[in-house]
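Researcher: Please translate sequence to structure tokens.
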Amino acid sequence: MAHDQIYRQLQVQLDRYPIGYPATKSGVEIDLLKYFFTPGEARIALCLSLRSIGADAIRKRLKNKFRIEFSHKEMTALLDGMFMKGVIRRSEGASSPRYGVAMLAIGMFEYHVDDLTPELVEMMHRYFDEAFGAEFFRSSLPQLRTSPHLAAILPEYIVDTYDNMRHFITHTKETLYVANCFGDIFSSPSPGQETRSRIPASGPRLCAASDGADPSCHPDYGPMGRRFGCLIETLGRK
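Model: Translation complete:
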């Protein structure tokens, strides 16, 4: 099967998700897929869905769909490589990791927040103008929304003052970090003038960053520079 057909199949599959991936007359959506995926990786992505599944299930799909066989170890290595590359998702299952497809946004694009290239930004600008902008705002259901639970929620969390936040940062025992996030990248006058914001956050799973470890290589974090922004600064302590 020709490589372009593989990428077109992946485009059609991605277009079925809540935030679709529509085709354009220029074909820039295919150029983006070629930027993110090798032909072999595109075939693997065609065996994924929004529902995360294990490596063995993906192996079977790959064999049935494309007559391509890998051992469990080889399949896991390929999937982990794609995850670290920032083109698919990975979650920790009860016994082994599970993998799922990533949408363009919020997804693959955000995973590359710290390794943007002029080529990627230019293609994203074109795609946003030609089709993806309308698609992204088409749905009345936002990707990030309130999740209702049958439980009482105490109103203990408020918008804090600067002085209170300064006290928290000074006295917390948790590890604090700052993550890059896209700002007005699509409203910038031209590619190369994009802005990025920094989002403070905290969490015990990121404590290894304070001891000099490379967070992008830690199995719990994945590609921090491609998933939720690079761990660029440790502000707190254990």
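Researcher: Any highlights?
Model: The helical segments are 3-14, 28-36, 39-45, 55-66, 72-85, 104-111, 118-136, 162-171.
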